[in-house]
Each structure stands twice: as C-alpha cells, then as structure tokens.
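TASK: fixed-backbone design
INPUT:
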C-alpha cells in the first residue's frame, strides 16, 4: 500500500491487496530462491513484505521507502512480523539482495530505466532477481493516478523495453487482475464524460469499508483471477489485466 493511502490500524485490508500478496508469493516461489536477502523498494506500510516473509522465510528483509519518517518507521516495525527492517534510506553500501521488489513503484519515477540500472549496480547480488509490478495501460490513466503522482501506466511491452534499456535480462512477464480491466475502463470512460466534480470519487485501497463476507468473496474471486492469469503466462499466453508484472536479472 502506498503510504498516502494508509488506513488506520485495524482497518480491514482491501481484497485487491490481499489477493496481490498471494500472486506475488506465487511469482517469487517460481524464482527458486532459497532464504534470500530481500530489499523492498517503495515498500509503503510493509504489509506485503511482511506477508511474504512469514510465508517464504527470508534471510533478511528490508522495507525501504523515501516517505518514511523515523517515527513512522518505528511504528511500522512494531506492527510488522519479526525480522522486517524499515528504513527511509539504506546506508549500508555492502548490502546486496538476492531479491529486489519494485511493486507499483516505477510509475512514480520519471526515469525508470535509470533507477533500475542503479539498483542492479548497487543493490542486486550476483545471480539476484528483480520483481516489478506496475499499473497497466495508459488509456486507463485517471484522476486516481494523478492523486498518487503516477507519471504513466504501462503495457507489458513498454515495461520490457524499460528493463532492457537498463541493461537487464527479462526472465518472465505477464498480467494480473484481468477481471478488473473492464470495470477500470468503464470508470476511466465515465471520468472523461463527466465533469471532474461529478466523476466518481473513489479512494485508494486504504479506504475499504465493506463487510467481512463481501471482502472474503471478492478476495477469493481475485485470487482465482490471478491464478488463471499466471497459469496462462506460464503457458506462453498473455491475458491482459490491470497490473503488469515482470521478473529480470543482470544480463
């Protein structure tokens, strides 16, 4: 979760967010890394990293986010599972991660290939891997993207181009959340047709207020959606979805 969308402690998580955790876990498991050191760049409140750490058992896990204050970093560390370190900046010049996570980060960056190149040189261990997710398809760019300070949305091909421009080799790629593509397209069209004040005022994932039953049902549907997307990608089929994902390594 982006820190700008962070909700009060105890609030129920959005089913998009919980389903995303399971999809990312499946993608990471495919990489075959054994107890890796992990650097989650733009980690937000650390929810996803904590869930991955609990499920996969990382050797060391660092959640780095430039928007963290010292007090917020302490607060999040107290709430997170043991073993998660929260930092605004990573000062250890020797730290190298076998897995770098860039989950919904590159859309915030004006020059993503430069960031990727820098991380590969300075933070990626030999034979390490980088996992990237970004929001998909520029025609779906809306006021929500502007509010979150997104520069752009990506197609799978455009993300591959950025990664290769950074001197990295693509291992695998695909989409997630295929079932959300048409609803988002309808929302984007509605926003273009209606005056800004009348367009839907949807909040981010931190403002989920539905009940437990609805949340469970949507979570289960989105988990199934992502499993089908990943199964299709494993067989060489690209099923469009609301999120693009990609794994890469140093070339």
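OUTPUT:
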């Amino acid at each position: 979760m982006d820190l700008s969308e962070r909700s009060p402690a105890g609030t129920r998580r959005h089913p998009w967010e919980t389903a995303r955790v399971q999809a990312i876990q499946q993608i990471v498991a495919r990489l075959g890394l054994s107890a890796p050191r992990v650097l989650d760049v733009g980690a937000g409140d650390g929810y996803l990293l904590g869930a991955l750490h609990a499920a996969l058992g990382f050797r060391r896990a660092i959640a780095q986010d430039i928007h963290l204050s010292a007090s917020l970093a302490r607060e999040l560390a107290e709430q997170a599972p043991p073993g998660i370190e929260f930092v605004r900046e990573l000062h250890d010049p020797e730290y190298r991660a076998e897995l770098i996570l860039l989950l919904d980060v590159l859309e915030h960056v004006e020059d993503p290939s430069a960031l990727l190149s820098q991380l590969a040189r300075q933070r990626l261990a030999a034979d390490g891997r980088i996992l990237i997710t970004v929001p998909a398809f520029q025609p779906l760019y809306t006021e929500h993207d502007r509010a979150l300070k997104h520069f752009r949305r990506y197609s799978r091909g455009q993300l591959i181009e950025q990664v290769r421009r950074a001197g990295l080799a693509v291992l695998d790629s695909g989409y997630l959340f295929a079932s959300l593509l048409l609803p988002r397209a309808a929302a984007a069209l509605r926003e273009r047709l209606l005056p800004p004040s009348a367009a839907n005022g949807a909040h981010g994932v931190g403002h989920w207020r539905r009940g437990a039953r609805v949340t469970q049902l949507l979570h289960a549907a989105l988990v199934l959606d992502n499993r089908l997307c990943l199964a299709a990608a494993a067989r060489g089929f690209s099923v469009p979805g609301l999120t693009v994902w990609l794994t890469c390594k140093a070339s």
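COMMENT: The longest helix spans residues 212-234.
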